[in-house]
Structure formats: structure tokens, C-alpha cells
Amino acid sequence: MKSCHVFITALLGILISAWIFGSAPGLCNELRFTDGTGNESPLTKKPERIVSLVPSITEMLFALGAQDSVTGITYHTTRPWYAARKTLVGGFSFPSPAAIEALEPDLVFYDPFQLQGLSSFLPRDIPLVHAGTQTLQDSLDTLLLLGNLVEKQENARHLVAEINADLDWVTAKMKKADLSPKRVIRLMGREQIMTPGSDSFQNHMISLAGGIPPDFGTGAVVPVSKDQWTSFNPQVIYGCGSDREAADRFFSLPGWKDVDAVKNNQIYYFPCDLTCRASIRSGQFVKRLFATIHGSSLADERTLLQKNQVTQSNPIQTDVSCVQAAAVKQSRILDFINKSLVIQLDRPMSVLSTLEGFKHGVTAIGNHYIPPETWLLVHDQGLDVLKTQVFDVLGLAPDTTAFLFTGADMDHLSAAQERFKDIAVTVFATAGVDGNAMRTSRDSGEFYEPGTINVIIMTSHRLTPRAMTRAMITATEGKTAALLDLDIRSSYEQGRYRATGTGTDNILVVEGQGPAVLDNAGGHTRLGELIGKAVHRAVTEAVKKQNGITSDLNIFRRLEKRGISLHELLSEDLPCQCHISENMLIQKVETLLLDPFYRGFMATAMAVSDEYDKGLIKDLGAFEQTCRETAEMIAAKPLETWQVFVTRPKVPRVIAMALDALFNGAVGQGGPL
């Protein structure tokens, strides 16, 4: 019997254009694909140790259900939650060849941008494959190709169909609502205004979303002059992440401030992993951008493609004695998919909610997910209008219903139960902490976005009003403990402080029924203990599902949550005659942070920084000595000079000291990686 061999030995610069399934006599089934030169190369078995250096490809592999075949990723991949358990091989710009080789991959997906740095170091028997995602169609084709590669063909076809359905929906909605396209520009840049080129997938997505993109030339990114800006006169501007810096710098200046979008405050920001990737969520982003561009025009029920109605109901099993039935119901409201946790009680009872206060005679409680596409509509129309729409679709009476509302997806609902003898506490939680997490007493309340942590508490006994009220405090303490344990950072002050909540959190406590009446839910009582533990566990799980944040969060993302990117820390003029480029220095430090020892050093700096900011540490002399010793350990020699590399005022002092230690040590090493 002949054994199967992998025929690919080195595939440098391959752009996959077609996959062909076939077999050859005497060999096992082969996967054949044709490279850009027209040559066929066969794979005789499914790869089992994939390293993906391209976040959009990694997203696709995970969405296909092939996560077990992925061994290494870059730190830019943050979702779903199990991405945190994959081995990091560096960042997109500077992946570490040594880290890649250590994983012994049987396939590496790369971007042409990375090729020079990889081909010089990696052994020639590691296959490198470039799968295109430069256009939206590229991403759909690549998704199907990956489905063949990892033997998830049906999943791939389903994902492609979902993306196309979203795009078709936008086209149909534009036509039904008779909407006119608006001028839309993607904001980019720091020192000057820039935007994607006219041939980019980002401008294509603007067109698909009912917008008119600018044409300022081709290329990944092109500069925008003031004359071009005012001549185009954008009606809507959007960006992501630190694109706000360009807005802060330019939008108060003559000319730049005089366009419709700035004058009418039509400036929006989205997650960068939505705006900057042609991948599995492209259809979702086009829908969201469409809703942002056309706003209140979509509230007119005369433009509905389908009537408001429940489209799906998924029962939830629970042993809470007062529950008659529970389900997550999917509904279509204003043509957008909404999701609701609906819990029917077996008799009327009282509930206490931070949204409505005490309410009596309640027969149904729940938690409703507001999809991102409708956040602006809800903001404009108000919560009362939404409640009327939701209760009408779900067939619930407003007077006997108590709901919470959230921007966290009900697919990420978490349930936890804690027991002691005959007392049981059941908690249902949703949680979203990206975008509006805050630290009470430190941060200011400046905006509302429904990204809340919502908690519903039910018990096996009847609670008095006193116990219900006290349960609110205990639950809040449990929620805050979960956020502190996960090191969730405030969205203000560039994440300098640890968050205590999101500023829009809500809790609902059900009176319940049972063999006894409980009158106290404080932390020293058994009931309080169970509430605190159940809330902590449910919130921790919900944050993991919604935001991909766990205790395993990688050090690069923990820095990012503090507003720190190595690529944006250094100026072009390094503070020393280093004989090393800025890019090489960043690459060296990224490689250091792949080492558990130096990750631990940086994590220690973060912990010390929090205590220093609170005033619990007064003298940093010992830590300064640790920084110098760490730098000399990296350099493998005493350092005669010490340079200050991190000068940005918003970087906390302790973290700046630790980063300076890594930079000084990297310079002291000398030479290339």
C-alpha cells in the first residue's frame, strides 16, 4: 500500500485561483490548486497545523469550524474567545519566523507584504500560501476555497450565502425605500487626511451600502487635499479606532470643518475589524453602514420588505420553579433581526428593575437585543417606541411585562446557577464591554450606547422587597468583581483605569416563589453569596462570548486596551544613534513579548501601574531598578546609556518605564533579529 505524501515543498507567492478535487491511481484523494502561473500543485491530505498570518483568513477558518486545525495566529485576531488560546506568532506586520517554525506548520497563510521577511528565514519545506482578500469577491472565493481545504464545504457555502443575502437585502431595501445615494468617505490618517483608493474593497462596500465614495486615485490609501475634501463635500464620514486623531486635528480647521458631514455631525466610528477586512462579516458591515448612512428613513413601515414578526423560537431549559416557559425568540422588526430572551412566569408577581423600578402583576420578563443597525434609530425615536414595537411583535402586554434592553447579542446569553441545600439562584446575563466601559468616580457620562451588562436574577424562594433591593447591591458587586478580574479597561482616558461597569448596566430581580420567604440578600448571607457567585460566573462567560475577553487575553491586546500600540509609540526620529530602523526596533520588541518571561514583566508593569495610579505605591525606585536589570538581560551586557523612547503623555508612567526597558534592551542587542 502506497503512503500519501505532501507534494508541496515551497509555495512562495502563490495566489490561489481555483481548487480542483481529484484522485490519482495508487494515491489517496488529492486537493489540487492552480497557482498564478497555471501550474497545478496537489495536497494529499487536509492540513492539520495551519499558521495564519492574515486576520481575515483566520476569521474564515474559525467561522468554518476549522479552529482545531489552526495552531498559530497573529495578535490581531481577537474573536471568537478561543482565539486567545492559540499560539501567537507576532503581529501582522512583523510575524516571527522562529515562532512560526516552532509550531511545525504544514501550511502557512501569508500576505505578500510579509513575504520578504518570511522567505529569508523559514525553511524551504514550509509551504507558504497567499489567499486573496483584496476585494469582496476575492473574500467570497477564498471562503469557498478554504472550505474545500479544511473539508467544511457545506459551512463555506452557507457563509457565502449569508453574506450575499445581506448584500441583496441592502439592494432591495434601497429600491423599496426609494433612497438616493449619499456622498460617503472613509476617514484615515494621522498627520494628514487620507482615504482608501477608488479600487479598494472599502470604497466598494460604500457603494454597496448606498453611498457614493470619492475617487482620489487608486491604491490602498491615498492622501486627500483640502480642495478635494471640500469639492467632494461628504455627507457622511466614518472611520475606526485612532482615525479619531485625524478628526480631532482637522475638523475644527477652515475648509475641513465646512463640509456637510462635519456641520451636521454625521461622523461615525466602527470596530476596525469590521471596516478594514473583507471577510466573513462584510455583509453585516454593509448593512450597518447602510443603516448609518440612511438613518431615520428606514423607520417608515411603508418601506418594509417583510412584515414585523417572530421568525424563530429556541426553547431554554430551566428548573426555576416560577418559570412556565423560556425561549430566545428571533424577530424581524423594521426588516432588521432582533433577538429576545422571553421568560413566562407561572403567575403574576413583582419584579424590581433598575430600568423601571418596582413593577407588580408581571407575567413575563426578558432581555431584548437591539441590533447595531438600529442603534441610531432607537436613539432618535426613544426607548418607548422600541418597547411598543417589541412587545407588539412578541405578543406581550406592556402592563404585565418587564424587559431590559441591550446591544449585546442574545446568541451570547450566559446562564449560571448556584445552590446551597434548598436555595438556588439562577442568573441570565448578557454583557458588552467594548465601547462604553467606564470607571465610576473617574469618568464622565457623555454618551449613551446600548452595550450594557444586563443581569436577570431568579431564586427558588420568595424574596421580600427588602431582599430584592439588597440583591441589586450584591449583584452589582459581583458584576464589578468579574470586570476587575478580567482587567476590563475604561473606554475613557485611553483605558488608564479599570472599569467598574459600562454606565448603562441594568439588573432585574424577580420576586419568585417557594417554601420560604427570604428577607436579606447581603454579602454575609447565604443568598447573597449565591447571587454574587452566579452573577460573577454569568458575566464572565457573557463577556467571553460577546467580546472574546478572557483571563488569557494576550499582552498585545491588553496594551491595546490601554490605548497603546507599539507601532504608534515611536517617532520617526529615534532618540538615539541606534543604527537600527524604527520597524526593526518594533519587531524586536514584539518578538520579546512572545517570550513568557517578558510577557510576565509587562503584565507586572500593568499591575504596578494600576496601584501607582491609585496612590497605593509611592516610590518607583525598586521598579526602576527592575526595568534596568531587564533591559541588560535582553542586551546580555551592561548598558552605558539609557534612552527615553516613550514620550506620549497619555501613556502611564510605569508602563512607559517598562516599554523603555524593552526598547533599550533591544537596541543594546544590536544587529538584525
From TrEMBL:
Record InterPro entries: ABC_Transporter_SBP, ABC_transptr_periplasmic_BD, AdoCbi_amidolase
Gene3D superfamilies, per the entry: Nitrogenase molybdenum iron protein domain
The keyword Hydrolase is annotated on this UniProt entry: yes
Domain Fe/B12 periplasmic-binding: 49-297
Pfam families membership: CbiZ (PF01955), Peripla_BP_2 (PF01497)
UniProt xrefs under SUPFAM superfamilies: Helical backbone' metal receptor
Molecular function via GO: adenosylcobinamide hydrolase activity
GO annotation terms (biological process): cellular response to iron ion
Alphabetical keyword list: Hydrolase
Entry's EC annotation: 3.5.1.90
Family annotation (PANTHER family): MOLYBDATE-BINDING PROTEIN MOLA, VITAMIN B12-BINDING PROTEIN
Protein name from the UniProt record: Adenosylcobinamide amidohydrolase CbiZ
Lineage, uppermost ranks: Bacteria, Pseudomonadati, Thermodesulfobacteriota, Desulfobacteria, Desulfobacterales
Name of the encoding gene: cbiZ
